[in-house]
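USER: Fancy drafting a protein?

ASSISTANT:
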Amino acid sequence: MTEEGNKTTSHLFVATATTQTNQLQSTGANTVTSSSSNGVAFYFQCAVVVIGVVGAVTNGLILYAMIVSKQHKKQLLIFNQNVFDLCSSLVLVTTYTLKLCNIRLSGMLGYLLCLLILSENLLWCSIIGSVINLLSITVERYLKVVYPALSKKVLRRWVLWSAMVFAWIASVVYNMVLTYFTTAVIDQVCYGYVIWNSRVAAVIHGVWNFMTFFVVVVCFFIFCYGRILFVIRRQASVMAHHSTHASSTAQAHSHQIQSNVVKTMILVSAVYVISSMPNSVYYLLVNINTDFTLLDSGYYIAMVLEFLYICANPFIYATKFEPVRRVLLDLIPCKKSQQAGDGEAVQMSGSRTAQRARN
C-alpha cells in the first residue's frame, strides 16, 4: 500500500513551484479542495456559495416563467440551457458547502466523495454540458435565420431532443473519464485534476481544453451570429421596401420574435466568452507552466468570474426574453396592485360616463 502511494505521488504533477509531493503536502491545502479555513480561500468559498444560492433561485424563476409561458415547448434548447444552469447552481452550493466543512477523507466513501463532488466533477459536468448545449442553440438559430427552408426539414423535434440528450451524455462521459484518471485522495485530502502520468500529458490536455472549449467556441459564435445579424438586417431592409401594409404587420411581428431570441442568445454567448476567458487562460497556464498554481488569488478571481456566468444568465432572460419577462412582471405584487387600481379607475370612469349619458 505504501509503495502504491509513493508511486502515485511520484506522478503528482500539480501546478506549484515544484512537482515534489512533499512540498505540495507541506502547503496543507488541496489544489481543488482547500483545507485552509481562513484567508482568501475561505472568503472565496463563501462567495461561491452565495453565487450558487442566487443562481439557484433566479434560474428556478426563469424555468417557472418558461413553463407558464409555454416557451419550454417552443424553445427546447433554451429551456435545457436553463436546466443546466440550475443544476450547476445547486451542485455549486453543495460542493463548496462541503469544502467549507473541511472533511477529512478516508475509505471508499471518502474516495467517492472526492471523485464526484469535492473534485468538482459533477459541477463541471453541468458547466461543460451547458457549453455544448449553447453551441446547439447557435446552430439552431443559424439554420432558422440563414437557411429557413432547410431548418424546417432538419430541425425536427427528435433532432432537438437528441441534441439535448447528447449535451448531457457527452459532458458526463468526458468529465467522468478525465476526473477518474486525474484525481486521488492523498493523506485524507482530495486532489482533483492534478494527477498526470507525465508533464507532457498535462500540457497536451491543457492546450486541447483551451482550444476546444474556448477558441473554437468563440470562433463558432463569431461566425454564426455574424451571419445571423447580416441576414436579419437584410431581411428587415427587404421588408421595409417590398411588403404591403396587410402582410407587413404579421411579418414584422414574426421578425421581431426571431430577433428577440437571437439578441438574447448573442448576449448569453457574449457573457459566456467574457466570464470563461480568465479561467480558460489560467487553466492553460497551470498545465504548461509550473509557476502557476491553483492556490493563487488569480485562480480564485478566474473561478468567481466563471461561476458568475451561471447566475448572470437569468437576468439576461428576465430583461431580454419577452415571454419570460411578462410572466416575471406578473409575479411582482406592486405591479398587480397597480394593474388592479388601473382597472378599477377605468371601470369607475366608464360608470360615470354611462351615468352622464343617461342624464
Q: What stands out?
A: The longest helix spans residues 199-242.
